[in-house]
Amino acid sequence: MQISSRFTIALHIFTCVDTFQEEYKVTSDFLASSINTNPVIIRKILTQLKQAGLITVARGTGGITPTRPLSDITFYDVYKAVDSIEDDTLFHFHENPNPQCPVGRNVHGLLDGKLKAIQDAMENEMRKYTIEDLRDGMQELLTVEGS
Amino acid sequence: MQISSRFTIALHIFTCVDTFQEEYKVTSDFLASSINTNPVIIRKILTQLKQAGLITVARGTGGITPTRPLSDITFYDVYKAVDSIEDDTLFHFHENPNPQCPVGRNVHGLLDGKLKAIQDAMENEMRKYTIEDLRDGMQELLTVEGS
DNA sequence: TTCAGTTGTAACCATCACAGTTTCATCTGT
DNA sequence: ACAGATGAAACTGTGATGGTTACAACTGAA
């Protein structure tokens, strides 16, 4: 299964805010146009980012503001905000293995540690990248484009 | 989004084959009982494992045989067999960012490398664990249980 | 104080993946 | 031939996703 596009959309949103906030009013309509989707989709994601405490959104007037330095917002923070999973377990374990069976009653003990290690590997890599990296990377790409 | 339970079920299947093949005929009915699901679910997963070249399944008589040494079958192999994703991309990118927008036309260039690094981190960790590890671990658990 | 612009949210809809189930054809060793 | 097993088709229910319309609520400015 794939991780939902809400994640890449959220990163796209942050990048647009960084890039355009001086020049334009960055509204859900503006973002929807850049991302090429519906403004309501954007607002739903903004709500999730807001609930996670990553941004504030101005009602009426519009406008998005990160609540902390961009170097303190990692991909992991964004992922957890928009794609949170029940119990934080990446792997969906089959629910009721047979306790009468020696394998059935031990399969959790056998697998849980390894599955967690895999999930940790992914999440730790996610923690390495920040919104600041995106801002810097985009500035570089735009400089190259402009030259 | 969670990775489907087919993955843990497949690992459960391999463990049952290892553990019980001497003692019982390991059929889809037998496995369905240990895993506590429907035999047809098991057969669908067996078909995927077979198509990936990891096992052979005997028709008529029943019986499952891995095609290579258990130390050569990794979690990654099993994951790819039962949970394959379109294009092998873990992250679902929003499809059509606006090419008129400087961010829209550069967002792929900005993100693709980082997303791939995250996916690689997960998959490389998956490659560290083999079905042999499961067999050994289960033997140990059963020894402790029996003592 | 009205008004235009914006966010927040509810109520839908279509599509898809997942897990499960029934049913039956097909294969294989005895 | 038969019992026991796999293979596969067809169908169901459930939930997530992505999208859309509609409207209430808020805000700053005219």
Itemize the secondary structure elements and their pairings.
Two copies of one chain form a homodimer.
Chain A: H1 6-20, H2 28-35, H3 39-51, E1 55-57, E2 64-66, H4 75-82, H5 107-126, H6 131-146
Antiparallel strand pairs in A: 1-2
Helix pairs in contact in A: 1-3, 1-4, 1-6, 2-3
Chain A binds a DNA duplex (30 and 30 nucleotides) through residues 1, 4-6, 25, 27-29, 37-41, 43-44, 46-47, 57-63, 92.
What does this structure look like?
2 copies of one chain form a homodimer. Chain A is elongated, with a radius of gyration of 19 Å. Chain A is built from 6 helices and 2 strands; from the N terminus they run αααββααα. Chain A has 147 residues and is mainly α. The mean pLDDT of chain A is 95. The first copy, chain A, has helices at 6-20, 28-35, 39-51, 75-82, 107-126, 131-146, and strands spanning 55-57, 64-66. Helices cover 54% and strands 4% of the residues of chain A. A two-stranded antiparallel ribbon of chain A has the order 1-2. Chain A has a single domain (5-146), classed as Winged helix-like DNA-binding domain superfamily/Winged helix DNA-binding domain (Arc Repressor Mutant, subunit A), CATH 1.10.10. In chain A, strand 1 and strand 2 form a beta hairpin. The interface between A and B is large, with 60 and 61 residues. The first copy, chain A, binds a DNA duplex (30 and 30 nucleotides) through residues 1, 4-6, 25, 27-29, 37-41, 43-44, 46-47, 57-63, 92.
